[in-house]
Amino acid sequence: MKDRHGEEPMRDNRIMEKIRVTSRENFRTSVVFLIVLLILFGLSTGFTRFNPIKALLSQGEFWNFILVDFIPPSMGRLGSLFRAAMQTIYMALAATGISTALALFLSFLGTAAITRSRVVNSFIRAFASILRNIPPLVWAFILVAAFGIGTVVGILSLIIGTTGCLIRFFIEILDEAAEETLEPLLAAGAGMPAIVAQALLPAAMPGFIAWILYCVELNIRASTILGMVGAGGIGLLLMGYIKQFNYAAASTAILAVALIIIGVNLLTNYLRKLIMC
After folding, report:
1. Quick one: which H or E segment has residue 205?
2. pLDDT at 2 over 60
3. Is 245 exposed, middle or buried (CB count within 10 Å of its CB: 0-12, 13-18, 19+)?
4. Side-chain half-sphere CA neighbours of 19 within 13 A
5. Residue 100, pLDDT above cutoff 90
6. Cβ(96)–Cβ(216) under 8 Å?
7. Is 163 a residue whose pLDDT tops 90?
8. Domain map (residue ranges) of the chain
9. In the CATH hierarchy, which top-level class contains the domain 78-276?
10. Is 250 exposed, middle or buried (0-12, 13-18, 19+ CB in 10 A)?
C-alpha cells in the first residue's frame, strides 16, 4: 500500500524485531546464578551425604507410617488437649505482653530521635541484636537446665527473643515517625515529653500494634516447638504422645496445632487490616 506521495512506506524494523522479555545481561546473570546454585546443591548433598534419589524412593515407608500409625486421629483425650492448647496460647500472649512493655521502654533509649546519646543508642541496638539472633529454642535449653521443665521456661524464652525483635521494630517505626514530626515541633518550642506523647506515639501506634500482632502469631508457633523441649503447653503433650508411641493421639495434637496457627493467622491478619485502614 502506497502513501500519499506514491511511495511504498518503509516498515519500522523495531516492529519486526523480536520483542525481548528480558535483556541479555539479565539472562546471562540468571543462567550464571542457576549454575552456581546447582553447584552448591551438588557440593552440599555430597558433604552431607544426602541422596535425593534415595529419599524419593523411600517415600513409600513414610506414607505407610503416616497412613497406618497416624491416621485416624484419636479423639479420646480432647480435655487434656484443650487445656494444653490454651496453655500454649496463654504463654504466647503473656510473653508478647511483657515483651511489648520492655521493648517500648528500651526503644525510647535506642532511637536517636528521643535519646541523644550515641553510646546508649548503640548499646540498646546491640543488646536487641543479641537477643534477636539467638533462637528461642537455645534459650529454652539453657533455661530448662536452670529452672527445670515448666511453662516458666517457655514464657521466659519467648520474652527474650520477642523483646529483641520488638525493640528493632519499634526503633524503626519511631525513627520514621520522627522524620515527619520531630523537627517542626522542636522548632515551634515543644518539649520532648509532649512530642513523644502527642506526636510520636500516635503516629507510631498502628505500626506498633501490627508488629505486636505479628509477634503473637510467631510466639504461638514457637511455643509449640519450645514445649517439645520441656517448656510446657501442647508441644510437651505432643512429645509425650510420641515417646509413648501413641501416634493417633499425637496426630490429634498436630491437627490442633495446625488449627490454632491457622485461626490465629486469620485473626491477626484481619486485625492488621482493620488497624491499617
Report:
1. helix 201-226
2. no
3. exposed
4. 2
5. yes
6. yes
7. yes
8. 13-70, 78-276
9. mainly alpha
10. buried
- Quick check: helix, strand or coil at residue 274? helix
229 and 157 Cβ atoms separated by less than 8 Å: no
Cβ-based neighbours of 138, under 8 Å, separated by 6 or more = none
Mean pLDDT (the chain, rounded): 80
Query: Does the pLDDT at position 23 exceed 80?
Result: no
All 3 cell numbers of residue 33?
Answer: 546464578
Contact by Cβ (8 Å): 196, 108: yes
The confidence score (pLDDT) of residue 68 equals: 73
> What's the pLDDT score for residue 179?
75
Share of the chain above pLDDT 90, in %: 11
Answer with the residue of higher pLDDT: 40 or 60.
40
The residue type at 168: R
The pLDDT assigned to 277 comes to: 65
Q: Which residue has the cell 501490627?
A: 210
C-alpha cell at 12: 519500522
Spatial CA neighbour of 215 closest among 273, 149, 159, 275: 159
Q: Cα separations (Å) of 180 from 169, 185, 198, 211, 277? A: 18, 10, 14, 21, 20
How is 59-122 classified by DSSP, letter by letter?
HHHHHHHIIIII-SPP-TTHHHHHHHHHHHHHHHHHHHHHHHHHHHHHHHHH-TTT---HHHHH
**pLDDT at res. 16:** 44
Instruction: Find the Cα–Cα–Cα–Cα dihedral 65, 228, 209, 106, rounded to 10°.
Output: -150
